[in-house]
Amino acid sequence: MGYIDVHHHFLTEDYAAAWKASGDIPPGLTPPQWSIDLDLAFLDRHNIDTAILSLSAPGVGLSHLTPEQAVVLARQINEQAAAIRDAHPSRFGFFATLPILNSDDISLAVEEARYALDTLHADGVTLFTSYHGRYLGHADFTPLWEELNRRAAVVFVHPASLSPDSPSLGPTASTNRRPPPIIDFPHETTRTAIHLITSNALRRFPHVKIILSHGGGTLPYVATRVAHLTADTGILARNGDTRTAQELLEDAKKFYFDVALSGFEEPLGLLTRFAKEEHVLWGSDFPFVREATVGGQMQVLEGFVGKGEGKDGKGGVVGGIQRHAAERLFPRLARRGE
């Protein structure tokens, strides 16, 4: 059975040059090489039928770009992604890149979302976990959420890089700082997910389908704790929000989750027990991941059959993660006659 990969990055030449020129590359992270040919070869080696392309952090929020330049770069990236999809319609889709969510003028992001979804027929949009210290449930972002909700859009949430002056986990920030994907990214995903829940954004915009990266960060592990402590302490009740712990937990299970860099036995088992059926999707994190890691995580997933974690076939856990959950989100990718 061929996979559908919903966490799959690309770097256009324009973007790669802009990223390197910005000096915003985190310590320990090297921008990978990418081309259409390299990507197609990777897909073929790993039995991946289709990949949904997206731009990784930091997106177009590069320090040396003006807001106007970031808008232009986002449009260039989206049109290039659409061209790749049109040249290889069965192999690629894409999540649109949006300009930085700016509380002073959120209309720029709304306008690009409209163009990408209506004109370029993007499969969804990419949002990062925070913008200028605001997580995604912030009221400033309401106009964008309203637009996405009206369209029942798919939103791919990717962690944002921390600021350069954030504390280091290594002896020195310059010589031994852990790259952000190792520890920072999962926690940023968790924080924005909790913010979307506690701000009531998930209930105010119920038609948006949100994919959390990397197994949802630590959400499957901490969701029950957060739900009970939030309800027990009455934090939300002070603002008239009377949701119970069970209702908060139900909201946490509305998310979709990709398994990029999280397809190890323990987290995968926890995630499949926590998430709703067919809310778990395959993701590789290409080209920022070692190819051996991708192959190893595919073996773990396919081994779930023998471990009793799920049954194979159309309705099973394995088939759902490999492709069937993605087919429900993106009907154009569904195989006919199966």
Order of helices and strands: EHHEHEHEEEHEHHEHHEHEHH
Approximately how much beta-strand content do the residues carry?
A: 5-15%
How many DSSP H or I helices? 12
* Shape verdict: globular
GO molecular function: 6-methylsalicylate decarboxylase activity; hydrolase activity; metal ion binding
EC number: 4.1.1.52
Family: Belongs to the metallo-dependent hydrolases superfamily. ACMSD family.
Keywords: Decarboxylase, Lyase, Metal-binding, Zinc
Folded structure, characterized:
The protein has an eight-stranded parallel beta sheet with strand order 1-2-3-4-7-8-9-10. The protein has one domain (3-333): Alpha-Beta Barrel (TIM Barrel). Helix content is 43%, strand content 12%. The chain has 338 residues and is of the alpha/beta class. Residues 171-175 and 311-315 have low confidence and may be disordered. It has helices spanning 13-22, 36-45, 67-87, 107-119, 142-150, 180-198, 201-204, 219-233, 245-252, 265-274, 291-302, 317-329, and strands at 3-9, 48-54, 92-96, 124-128, 130-131, 134-135, 154-158, 209-212, 256-258, 280-281. The longest helix is centred in the first third of the chain and has 21 residues, at 67-87. InterPro entries: ACMSD, Amidohydro-rel, Metal_Hydrolase. Keywords: Decarboxylase, Lyase, Metal-binding, Zinc.
